[in-house]
Predict the 3D structure of the following.
Amino acid sequence: MKIRKQLYADIILQHMPVGAAIYDAQDWRLLAANPCFLSYLDTFVEPRWQHGQAVGHSITELHIQVQTSDVSDIFARVAQSGQAERVESMAILTPQGTLTYWNWTLDVLRDEEGHIQYLLQTVIDVTAQVRARRAAEQQRLSTVLDQLPEGILMADAISGVISYVNPTAAHFLGMTQEQLMGMAVSRLQSFDEIEACNQPGSDGSPVPWNFFLIQALSGETIRSKETVISHADGTRLNVLISAAPLYTSNGMMSSAVLILQDITEQKSVEQQKNEFLWMANHELRTPVTIIQGFAELLVQSEHGLDEETRSALLNIIEQSEYLSGLVESMLDMTRLEQQQFQLQLAPHDLLALVMRIVESQAVTTSLHQLRFVTEGIATTDELICLIDRERMTQVLSNLLNNAMKYSPQGGTIEVGLRAMARTSRQQGSHTYQEALIWVKDQGIGIAAADIPHIFDRFYRSRVIDRSMSGFGIGLYIVKEVVTRHGGRVWVESAPGRGSTFYLWLPLKTQS
């Protein structure tokens, strides 16, 4: 009876549609396997281990290429803990480069004394089910993506070819979906002349848009990169590109997605706005200069002026200067947007420049007391470095004007300069390599929610009284000038406790 039962068990094992194998618990050698397991094994091991040649060899010798985790790690955990492990849809790469999917179970078999003697593995090929499920998911996803106004492309992570493209993306690229589908990502650049556009630090050299998709296939995430696509008929399309890798639930990269947004109309409106601002600023500059000049001429006239007339003329001069500054700020903003903002770097004494600006601003206010402090450098020293003198004057004057404007009750305004040397004293002088400048007021302060946006173009803090003039351009220009000097700017503030603006600058000198 026992022999007959064993025979039945062997027959069942030989004909089961599930692969089963037994391993030695100590060295993980494959001791025996049913035909189903051996046929499965033949699909993902090297030819030398096929046709039953794997029996008698350790699992570590088989070099099974698993995408999610090492097979030997699973064996080690089960052999040590005695707890069975089940892995759903484990992805295994065949020697031919095809991904297959398996449900694996690894359990222990104990002897009569309870010691782990064998490891029992069962496997089921679920490749067809996984592919069918993904095909259904892809179909549902395609139905949604086909309707989007944004262009969507997806590339397979293994093959590097386009696996999906919606009609909008094909239209943007000037190609058909049939042309794009199944094409290698690296070949796409030959179809269109595609160049980088309006990217900080770009050298202007052509960069194909598919470069961003290649980056995503390498695991990078790309956000909001502007490019221009030129079509064969001469039309040009401004697009905003984002791209990212996509991962399965078990952490394996399956594909990458690229999103194209048409911003041609927005760029056109922006260009028209910039051209209008440029023209309006130039048209305003001449009459403002004439008004200011005649007012100054009248004030200096030898003919006697009554006090009321003199006060009116001085007010005209003051308002003309304010308007001239506003026009210049708007011009600077236009230059920045059109990539025409250039620094004129030359050797200047930064310490002397800051001191001069503080002295000149001090005579313009009777409500505030300006105090200049230094750290790490004496006021009699020099701090020679390459800066744009006019632009740095603009930056510091803007910060001081803001400090006075937003301290309507008066108080002390501290302007500080800290020079930091990274080399030792040589021949009686320091070589300074960086500087920190700060402007600290006792004014109304800035709310925490406003601080991340305070340097944005046209942004004004919500705690500001709307009767205070300004367009939110000044700090935007401050940040641009400091950044283009290789530095950075930030603020520390709280409502009712004043604000401190910091400028950090690397001190570059001529070689």
